Amino acid sequence: MSTIRGIEHLGITVPDHDAAVAFFKAAFGAEVMFSQTAAHGGPFPAEEIGALNGLRAGTAMKKVTVLRLGNGPNVEIFEIDRPGGKSETNIADLGISHFSVNSDDLGALAEKFSEAGGELLSKIYDLGDPEDGQGNRGVFGRTPWGLLVEMQQIESPMTYLPGATARRWLPESEEA
């Protein structure tokens, strides 16, 4: 038996905290829940918090804000004074390459994503097996800072392998 309830939040390091928060608000209707920097000041140097969260020595968290994104995990936005790594995520890279949001209107979501400054990688497409089904569609996009985001609209049940004991969790519509 698992002792976890589910994913509570995703942490995303961005080059510009304020621009990222504005993008998430415009693209996904995100709401600011709280800001660690507003509550506790900052920056937070690795020498003070690195033992708690693994922040690399010699760096500091400049700004930290947690956003509410519909009916799913929260998103925590970090700006680090000297970030490392690559700015553009790719499915072929090790580690978390993207996150996915589910929508009742994928066309409207993709349009808002683009208007907010994101780049769609293709046109909206029908999802394939085992996610195929009437109305099941998706599209990938990149945020202005290079993060890969998958957007989906899933209206029909998935196909499961014989003997599958778990079913995919999907956020319920806020209208439900």
> What count of structural domains?
2
Q: Structural class of the secondary elements?
A: alpha+beta
Largest sheet, in brief, is: 5 strands, mixed
Q: What is the radius of gyration computed over CA atoms, rounded to a whole number of angstroms?
A: 18 Å
Proportion of residues in extended strands: 25-35%
How would you describe this protein?
The protein is α+β, with helices and mostly antiparallel strands. The protein folds into two domains: 1-84, 2,3-Dihydroxybiphenyl 1,2-Dioxygenase, domain 1 (Roll), CATH 3.10.180; 86-176, 2,3-Dihydroxybiphenyl 1,2-Dioxygenase, domain 1 (Roll). Helices cover 20% and strands 28% of the residues. The chain is built from four helices and ten strands. The strands form two sheets. Strands 1, 2, 3, 4 and 5 form a five-stranded mixed sheet that branches. Strands 6, 7, 8, 9 and 10 form a five-stranded mixed sheet that branches. Strand 4 and strand 5 form a beta hairpin. Helix 1 runs antiparallel to helix 4 (106-115). It is globular and about 50 Å long. It starts with 8 loop residues before the first strand and ends in a 23-residue tail after the last strand. 21% of the residues are buried.
